[in-house]
Design a protein that fits this description.
Strand content: 25-35%
Radius of gyration: 17 Å
Number of strands: 13
Strand order of the largest sheet: 5-4-3-2-9-8-7-6
Number of domains: 1
Mean pLDDT: 96
Distance between the termini: 25 Å
Structural class: alpha+beta
Order of helices and strands: HHEHHHEEEEEEEEHEEEEH
Shape: globular
Low-confidence stretches: none
Largest sheet: 8 strands, antiparallel
Oligomer: single chain
Number of helices: 7
CATH topology: Arylamine N-acetyltransferase fold
Helix content: 25-40%
CATH class: Alpha Beta
Length: 249
């Protein structure tokens, strides 16, 4: 891997030693520069989740991706920098109270002096790694999170405005290989039941909040203030994609 090219893609000039400071900085920078997006699915372009393909798409193609691509590439970068990284399978929570199947989502465990949960591929979620410790409320500028023991798995939860907790996904600490996610990746990019085949999405963290293109709607959150604007045409959507994400498709 061309580590220098990846760091340039992230516009990252900080320390790269395998430390918590580096991990936090790289994680946030990845969230701010590499968008969570599913544009290839709407273009009927097959998505390959091998590390080399994901890194090439992000670095050379100046694109983003969804969890298998983003966390797969980020894991490859961290390993190249000397971090110890383990792929984890997660089940995404559903609105009906259920959850998706195994390999529905890819998250990362990073071991330093203590284990950390990293995830640059879940869209609007934590901006910096979380301690892999249960029942510890971890506050960030984007929200407050905790990891809770739930039967045979761990649950990542986010605090809501009414102080209740919503599960984002459950996961186990069993080490996984990227190939184990291939079938579920195929489902997400081909099935009419997948949310990724139903609407185009492109979203990234900003220092002030978040910018999202969802269908033909532009949503900008700035210090907690949310503004949504309907775009009039495909041309305006393409222009917004270039302006806010530097993506040309």
């Amino acid at each position: 891997m061309d580590v220098a090219a990846y760091l340039r893609r992230l516009r990252y000039t900080g320390t790269v030693e395998p430390t918590l400071i580096s991990l936090r900085s790289l994680h946030r920078r990845h969230m701010e520069t590499v968008p969570f997006e599913n544009l290839d699915i709407s273009l009927s372009r097959p998505i390959e989740i091998e590390d080399e393909a994901s890194v090439r798409k992000i670095v050379e193609g100046h694109r983003g991706g969804f969890c298998y691509e983003l966390n797969g590439a980020f894991a490859a970068l961290l390993r190249a920098l000397g971090f110890q990284v383990t792929l984890l399978s997660a089940r995404v929570a559903r609105k009906n109270g259920g959850e998706g199947p195994e390999f529905d989502h890819l998250a990362l465990r990073v071991d330093l002096d203590e284990p950390w949960l990293a995830d640059v591929g879940f869209g609007d979620s934590f901006a910096e790694p979380l301690r892999l410790q249960t029942d510890l409320e971890q506050q960030q500028d984007v929200g407050t999170f905790r990891i809770r023991q739930a039967a045979q798995s761990l649950a990542l939860e986010r605090q809501q405005e009414d102080d209740s907790w919503r599960t984002e996904y459950s996961f186990t600490l069993m080490p996984r290989q990227i190939g184990e996610f291939r079938d579920r990746c195929h489902f997400h990019q081909t099935s009419p039941e997948s949310s990724f085949t139903q609407k185009r999405i492109c979203s990234r963290l900003t220092p002030e909040g978040r910018i999202t293109l969802s269908g033909l709607h532009l949503i900008v959150t700035n210090h907690g203030h949310r503004e949504e604007r309907a775009l009039d045409s495909e041309e305006e959507w393409l222009s917004a994609l270039r302006q806010y994400f530097e993506i040309v498709v």
